[in-house]
User: What shape does this take?
Amino acid sequence: MALELRRKSIHLIGLIVPIVYIFIERHQAVIAVGILVIGALVMELLKAVWPSFSVVFYRVFTPMLRTHERNGAITGATYFLVGAFLPILLFPKILAIVCILFMILGDMAAALIGKKWGRTKLFPRKSLEGSLACFLVCVLIAIVKLNPAVAIIGALAATVVEVLPIKLDDNLTMPLLSGLAMYAFLSG
Assistant: This one.
């Protein structure tokens, strides 16, 4: 639980992305977050091909990494940046901000509530209690700026993606698929 709490508190730093995006134009956000994505991808590449860099990287970041990340997988931070970049690139500003907030706050609620109070297992490491917390937080986020139907559709999509035991990191899939669901509903 302590590792998860530390990881999720670091997620809160990610709030910088949607907060800054509120005050800048879309093209500026695409450039700024795009540069961060490129930097993260370069670090992933260096970690994979340059042993000296890999040693330093793991020495610095191991306390924050999950087991699979310590074993060479792409880090959650890289998925987070790509997961923030794609909605900015693909969706209207308000949807992008909502999707990124789903990724940060909805995922955090699911993890923390699920670890602390999750008793009803839906899948290994996923609980009904964590999923309900994710859904509620996502609805509360979206309903501030979107109509209730869109808020519920987006929150439901984010929650389903968060709870399903799929191989792709939910930092990537949660904002992208919830954004697609809301965008499709608004466009249809």
User: Anything to note?
Assistant: The chain has a mean pLDDT of 92. Residues 76 and 151 are 26 Å apart (CA to CA).
